[in-house]
Amino acid sequence: MERHFHHELEALRDRLSEMAGRAETALVKSMEALKTRNARLAEEVRAEDIAIDRIELQIESQSLNFLGLQQPVARDLRFLVAAIRISNDLERIGDHAVNIAQSAVRLSSLPQIKPLEDLPMMAERTITMLRDAVSAWLNGDAATARRICERDVEIDGLKAKIFAKLSGGMIQSPESVPRALELLLVSRNLERVADLATNIAEEAIFVAEARVIKHHAEESEEGSPGAGAPGSGTSTAGRPASR
């Protein structure tokens, strides 16, 4: 029975890995559609999002079934709790990819202006951040996960830089406003993806070390007697909500 349970956990892990791969593919396609002004490629992102939504429902159902019937403890319990939350984060990443693809479609009908160099850089680093966060989770690599959390500041800085450039451009060239606003939306969606990648990295730490670090909870718990995480052997009043 125990061997069967762990085999099923591995299958769940594989489904989450597939879901993460589809979320990354959706992001890559949406940015490529933006770069090449390819409306048809942008439409393919929607198909990826539908598949991501379907996998999320399967993961949630299977995880809840495990929790209710198998009553796992310790790391297995943390894994299942994290699986539900990570699948939700990945589903939201798929939604942000769709938002970027929709901006790409709208931009394809507008006159093209000077390329914005910082936006492709922001996208590349955000996608890398997502890929590394998923890898840290799959490998139980808490040290790498912590470094990924620190990279979110760089993405925020790039977004601020893009905002400053586009705002200045809109003042100088009012005709560029529709395009600039769409590009601002793209940068906003990329920033949110980076936030969700950070969430996934935090889940990697939660599973590997039974530590909750969201909203600096790790710091506050150090001074609280009896503080702990689900499945860690100590009680907890609950985990802070996702971003």
TrEMBL record:
This is Phosphate-specific transport system accessory protein PhoU. Homodimer. One of its GO terms (cellular component) is cytoplasm. It comes from Eiseniibacteriota bacterium. GO terms for biological process: intracellular phosphate ion homeostasis; negative regulation of phosphate metabolic process; phosphate ion transport. PANTHER family: PHOSPHATE-SPECIFIC TRANSPORT SYSTEM ACCESSORY PROTEIN PHOU. It is found in: Cytoplasm. The keyword Transport applies. Belongs to the PhoU family. Plays a role in the regulation of phosphate uptake. Residues 16-103, 122-203 form the PhoU domain. InterPro entries: PhoU, PhoU-like_sf, PhoU_dom. The keyword Signal does not apply. It comes from the Bacteria. It holds the Pfam family PhoU.
